[in-house]
Design brief:
Helix 2 crosses helix 3 and helix 2 crosses helix 8. The two termini are 14 Å apart. By secondary structure, the protein is α/β, with parallel strands linked by helices. The chain folds into two domains: 148 residues, Quinone Oxidoreductase, Chain A, domain 1, CATH 3.90.180.10; 124 residues, Rossmann fold (3-Layer(aba) Sandwich). GO terms for molecular function: mRNA 3'-UTR AU-rich region binding; NADPH binding; quinone reductase (NADPH) activity; zinc ion binding.
Length: 323
């Protein structure tokens, strides 16, 4: 027997329940992982409140790392004792769990389990955003919203390593300092400054070629107004709610702009894509160019408080849940 966080209905943090579960042996194609760290992500909140439907009753969370305890029939390439991580398999809020081997990645020696749990989902997100959705190059100036968040800090590091100039939005002087310490060149405190005016000032009135926006509804128009003609808005999250009711003609009026709403799953749809994306991230981590920015740790049984703090903007960087 082991313990896991489960939900029996959607709702606020109070629906998260710490329960004893009976875990069967891994089925064919699965591996059993005793987890040492679980990553906290906004998608977990979306699962809890019903924005992203998941089977109920059941577990939630999509990212973790640990050591394989057993393998199911037909599994090749993994064995008990292997250090592994995964991202995308629902049910991560557990001490021990079974995961499809197709979702699991072996960890290189230079990447710890805790760092993997803190960075795999966010780091692969950064990889597809800045290397494939819009391929940022040296000398490019980018605007990255929530620069002091879990994805933002990894993005600032990676973008800096690419030679890009990074403008990041933050909500406090403390978060501005953190973003700058992780490679952000200029910060905009959106509680005190006008984002569009500051971006125009910092780019001599031109705007930026790309904006990465995980905020959603509250920043959509602002992000469009920060773009230069034919620029791209990469909207990859909705912490303030989904963007809807958009008049596509606005894109023409504001300079023949592009808008895309990518998701990680479309970029790691095959095993080869998953391995290549993770390998790029792990290589950056082993080279010291991308480092896990773990701002806080909670016991897994306290996941409700962790989610509440994340939603309230009280966290910085990545958050780890410890089984």
């Amino acid at each position: 027997m082991s313990y896991a966080i489960r939900i029996h209905q959607t709702g606020g943090p109070e629906v998260l329940k710490w329960e004893e579960v009976d875990l069967p042996a891994p089925a064919a194609g699965e591996v059993m992982i005793r987890q040492s760290a679980v990553g906290l992500n906004y998608i977990d909140i979306y699962q809890r409140d019903g924005l992203y439907p998941i089977p109920i009753p059941g577990g939630l969370g999509v990212e973790g790392a640990g050591v394989i305890e057993a393998v199911g029939a037909g599994v090749t390439g993994f064995k008990p004792g292997d250090r592994v991580a995964y991202a995308g398999a629902v049910g991560a809020y557990a001490e021990v769990r079974n995961v499809p081997a197709a979702s699991v990645l072996a960890l290189p020696d230079g990447v710890s389990e805790e760092d993997a749990a803190a960075t795999l989902l966010k780091g692969m997100t950064v990889q597809f955003l800045i290397r494939r959705t819009y391929a940022v190059g040296a000398g490019d100036t980018v605007l990255f919203h929530a620069a002091a968040g879990g994805v933002g800090l990894l993005a600032c590091q990676w973008l800096s390593a690419l030679g890009a100039r990074v403008i990041g939005t933050v909500s406090s002087p403390e978060k501005a300092a953190l973003a700058k310490a992780n490679g952000c060149d200029e910060t905009i405190n959106y509680r005190e400054e006008n984002i569009v005016e500051r971006v125009r000032d910092l780019t001599d009135g031109a705007g930026v070629p790309v904006v990465y926006d995980s905020v959603g509804k509250d920043t959509f128009e602002t992000s469009l107004d920060c773009l230069l003609p034919r620029g791209m808005l990469v909207s990859y999250g909705n912490t303030t709610g989904p963007v809807d009711g958009v008049n596509i003609g606005v894109l023409a009026a504001k300079g023949s702009l592009y808008v895309t709403r990518p998701v990680l799953g479309a970029y790691i749809g095959t095993r080869a894509e998953l391995e290549a994306t993770a390998a790029d991230l792990f290589a950056m981590m082993e080279a010291g160019k991308v480092k896990a920015s773990i701002g806080q740790r909670y016991a897994l049984k306290d996941a409700a408080k962790a989610q509440a703090d994340l939603a309230a903007g009280k966290t910085v960087g990545a958050t780890i849940l410890r089984p």
